[in-house]
Amino acid sequence: DMKNPGQKIGNDVWCHLPDEAWRILKSMPKERAEIFPYNSSSIATAWAKACKFLMIEDLHFHDLRHDGVSRLFEMDWDIPRVASVSGHRDWNSLRRYTHLRGRGDHYAEWPWLERIIQAPVKLGAWGKQ
């Protein structure tokens, strides 16, 4: 269900996953139907605790999407290709996510990708139901 002010349920959108995201998804345990079997309130709590611990103010989980979409544009992806990842259906809603800070892939050869893929994943109580 894609977020949409006029249609909250039954708003499914298929999105393309970049190769790096696909590799991370394939590394997840296959114990549940959900790829990330976590309760949304648990994620919100962990995000708030991490921001507090790191003394980061006014950073929201959704800001990661904004940053990711902007980075795809910085990598010279065109509008239809970015929209295939973000799920946006028109340029007007996608345009507000474009805040370019440069050109190129800032994460090319990023050493943490392999560490993330290889790291063991603990699903917690909700993931084991």
SSE blueprint:
Blueprint: H1 19-26, H2 40-53, H3 63-74, H4 79-86, H5 91-95, H6 112-118, H7 124-127
Helix pairs in contact: 3-4
Please tell me about this protein's structure.
With 129 residues, the chain is mainly alpha-helical. The protein has helices spanning 19-26, 40-53, 63-74, 79-86, 91-95, 112-118, 124-127. The chain is globular. It starts with 18 loop residues before the first helix and ends with a helix. The model has no long low-confidence stretch (mean pLDDT 81).
Q: Report Rg.
A: 16 Å
Largest sheet: none
Beta strand count: 0
| Uncertain residue segments | none
| Order of helix and strand elements from N to C terminus | HHHHHHH
Mean pLDDT value: 81
Proportion of β residues? Answer: under 5%
The outline comes out as globular
Number of helices: 7
Distance between the termini: 23 Å
Question: Residue share in helices?
Answer: 40-55%
Concise summary:
The chain is mostly helical and 129 residues long. It is built from 7 helices and no strands.
Task: Give a quick set of tags describing it.
129 residues
